[in-house]
Amino acid sequence: MRHTGSTLPENTEEEEEDAEVMNSSVSQLHLDMSVPVDSVPVCCLSFRQPFAGLVLDGVKTVESRWRPLLALMQNQTLGIHIARRDWEGEEWRAVLSGPLGMNRAQIDALLESGERFGRGVVAGLVDVGPTWLCPAHLSEAELRPLERSAVLIGLEQKHLTHLSNPRWLTQPISSRGDRDLWTVEIPAELLP
């Protein structure tokens, strides 16, 4: 997907300090299988359901946040943590049944798939692509594909990040979530 005309705003001094700290703690997930590895450190982000499952099942390919939280993660692997709480709105259901054309049985199967490991766990991995600011005024023709990819409406003025290559871990890792990025050690035998 090509995005033009959107730029990120200038970072504040505090955001630049946060970026330096994050850059020093974020590492790409590249495994050299010739060297034995017991575990791999991976940056994680909590997603409420149903979005965690929708990301890991490849339905949601665009994440939206009010700040460019994932911008520094571009071209890296992100761990997906399934939060204990549900997303409070129901607009995702309207996107699944409307623009994505899913019937009730398909939606129920998708929701069940997303719950396979339960809550409060790191459940999978996804590759992080570019982050861009969604403009305040987009035509409906430009906005609808983004809403389908994000499985959410109301994306204007949010920072959008492309997600790809979703994969479930072979088993979940129990972990407390966080509002920002944090690092978790994933045992090598749980990697897909």
From TrEMBL:
Superkingdom in the source lineage: Eukaryota
SUPFAM superfamilies with a match to the protein in the record: PUA domain-like
Transmembrane segments: none
Region of interest (Disordered), ranges: 1-21
InterPro entries per record: EOLA1/EOLA2, PUA-like_sf
Feature: compositional bias, Acidic residues: 11-20
Protein name as annotated: Protein EOLA1
Organism (species): Scomber scombrus
Higher taxonomy: Eukaryota, Metazoa, Chordata, Craniata, Vertebrata
